[in-house]
Amino acid sequence: MYTTESQNEHLEDKNTSSSTTPQILKDSSISEHEETKETVLSQTEETKPQMEKTYSCPPQGKLNKLITNGVAFFMAWCVVWSFSGPEVLPGGNLFGLLIIFYSAIIGGKLLELIRIPSVPQLPPLLGMLLAGFTVRNVPFLSNYIHVNNTWSSTLRTTALTVILIQAGLGLDPQALRHLKSVCLKLAIGPCLMEACSTAVVSHFLMNFPWQWGFLLGFVLGAVSPAVVVPSMLLLQENGYGINKGIPTLLIAASSLDDIIAITGFNTCLSIVFSSGGILNNVLASFRDVLIGALAGAVLGIFVQYFPSGDQTKLPLKRAFLILSMCVTAVLGSHHIGLHAAGGLCTLALTFVAGINWSTEKVKVQRIIKTTWYIFQPLLFGLVGSEVSVASLQSNAIGICVATVSLALLVRISFTFLLMCFAGFSFKEKIFIALSWMPKATVQAVLGPLALETARSSAPHLEPYSKDVMTVAFLAILITAPNGALIIGILGPKVLTRHDPNKVDVELTKLELH
Q1: What is the pTM (predicted TM-score) of this model?
Q2: Which 8-state DSSP code applies to residue 118?
Q3: Environment class of 382 (CB within 10 Å of its CB; exposed 0-12, middle 13-18, buried 19+)
Q4: Residue 497 in 3-state DSSP?
Q5: Neighbours of 306 (CB within 10 A)
Q6: In terms of Cα–Cα distance, which of 463, 269, 473 is closest to 380?
Q7: Where in the sequence does UniProt note compositional bias of the Basic and acidic residues kind (predicted)?
Q8: Phi-psi region at 118: left, alpha or beta (left = phi > 0; alpha = psi -120 to 50)
Q9: Contact (CB, 8 A) for 258 and 225
Q10: Which of 202, 329, 428, 460 would you call most buried, defined as having the most Cβ atoms within 10 angstroms of its Cβ?
């Protein structure tokens, strides 16, 4: 009896528990469903105001930012107009500079958008150059866009100063010490050889006088750091050629190459536009070089210690001092007749100053690079706007292209021969020779400089200076994109790759002669 009742009670308890289990599961599922529903509703409620804010009135987000920047730019234009009057209206200098500046920026951005699979990115400076060329040669735009020759020349000279500052700060004393032999060969040999070959070709092909031929040769003789340096840094980051220091070699030699070309150009410029004898002009150029180097060394030592290391915003103050001193040196040297002194003063100042800055030099370089972002569109936009299709002769383009091509062929061949005694393999020698062809920044500055000098002091020499300008323009168009493509495509295929994290490139162990 007791047993039966206990069994029944046990069965009842079991049934009760079994019946409550699905109820609990059901309740839990309902609660989970309700919680999920509440979460979805809460998320919807949270996103709903955001969507309302996006399309609210007044607008928010990117549209608000766009309108704000547009109004700010318009008000800045109104303020300038209130000071200068017609200068910012169509036909004025400021209006022309603004149109060229923003057209060059847009041209550079459009070129960056062109992405071809397995093909390296083209340099934006090419788009800037073509934008300035378009502004000049479109009939409607060219009627309202004018820039005073003095303004244009001053801005291009300032851009050259920024280039020289970057070159001086970019010189690595340790790399130069251990690669001095091959670096000097690579910087001096191809530049001088291309200058001489250009003088010969232009004398017989373009009927240039010898002094104008050498002037054109030094315009073409400079390699472009704006193309070579970024391409080499990219290869270096990926580990190509770092075991023999090829990217470091080309980066260091590109700055020295520009120094040789600019010094030679200033010497030839003084010979061409001077009424004295050639010997006197050469001696005057050496005098300018000596004065510039000494002044730069003294100012560089000064900037090493002033401002002192205990001051705040040290990189900004150093960058300001360097920019102000170098711009004054370059522009002032032209005013007092020492044309070659300003460039050498800039290079010596920045190189000497950077020796004592150690790691702080990188911060100064970043500030100078920001300044270059402003002057780069102006430089290439103004250079492109100097070339007029209507003024070109029917056979001028073909002759200019032939001159550039023959000079390039000599330069590439001579560079290959120089590297035959430097301890590189056959593929590496080919890569170095082809990487040493891009031209852009120095040509963009020196090409128009001869034209500006002829317009101001010797109008009868203007036809020669226009031909120099045309050759410089075509050299940029031909070599800048092709050089960037060759470096980007050929580098990974012919250079030996090593892991940058495992390979410590010690320049002292490089057996380069």
Answers
A1: 0.76
A2: T
A3: buried
A4: strand
A5: 11
A6: 473
A7: 29-38
A8: left
A9: yes
A10: 202
Helix axes 360-386, 149-170, angle to 10 degrees: 150
Residues 6+ positions from 478 with CB-CB distance below 8 Å: 401, 404, 405
Tokens of residue 167, six digits: 């070159």
Q: Cα-Cα-Cα-Cα dihedral of 496, 438, 446, 250, to 10°?
A: 10
d(CA 407, CA 418): 17
User: Residue written as tokens 């500046």?
Assistant: 101
Structure tokens at 230: 């970024």
Question: Around Cβ 454, how many Cβ atoms within 10 Å?
Answer: 21
Contact predicate 275/457, CB 8 Å: no
Residue 456's contacts (CB-CB under 8 Å, 6 or more residues apart) are 149
| b/e burial code for range 230-267 (CB count within 10 A of at least 16 → b) | ebbebbbebbbbbebbbbbbbbbbbbbbbbbbbbbbbb
Integer Cα distance of 389 and 397 in angstroms? 10
Nearest to residue 484, comparing CAs of 151, 306, 224, 156?
A: 224
| Whole-angstrom distance, CA of residue 431 vs CA of residue 412 | 10
Query: Left (φ > 0), alpha (ψ -120 to 50) or beta: where does 85 sit?
Result: left
What Cα–Cα distance (Å) separates residue 95 from each residue in 69, 78, 365, 380? Answer: 19, 12, 31, 17
Total H helices, total E strands in the chain: 19, 0
Is there a cis peptide before residue 377, judged by omega within 30 degrees of 0? no
> Residue 10 carries which side chain, given as an amino acid letter?
H
pLDDT at 225: 82
Residues 6+ apart with CB under 8 A from 337: none
Does residue 307 have a cis bond before it (omega within 30 degrees)? yes
- For the segment 163-199, what is each residue's pLDDT rounded down to a tens digit? 888 878 877 777 667 777 888 889 899 999 999 999 9
The domain made up of 164-363+395-499 has a fold known as: Na+/H+ antiporter like fold (1.20.1530)
Alpha carbon distance 257, 249 (integer Å):
12
Kindly tell me if the per-residue pLDDT of 385 is higher than 60.
Answer: yes
Taking residue 500's Cβ as centre, other Cβ atoms within 10 Å add up to 14
DSSP character string of 250-296: HHHHHHHHHHHHHHHHHHHHHHHT-SS-HHHHHHHHHHHHHHHHHHH
- pLDDT tens readout for residues 406-435: 999 999 999 999 988 888 889 999 999 999
Longest CA–CA span in the chain (Å) reads 141
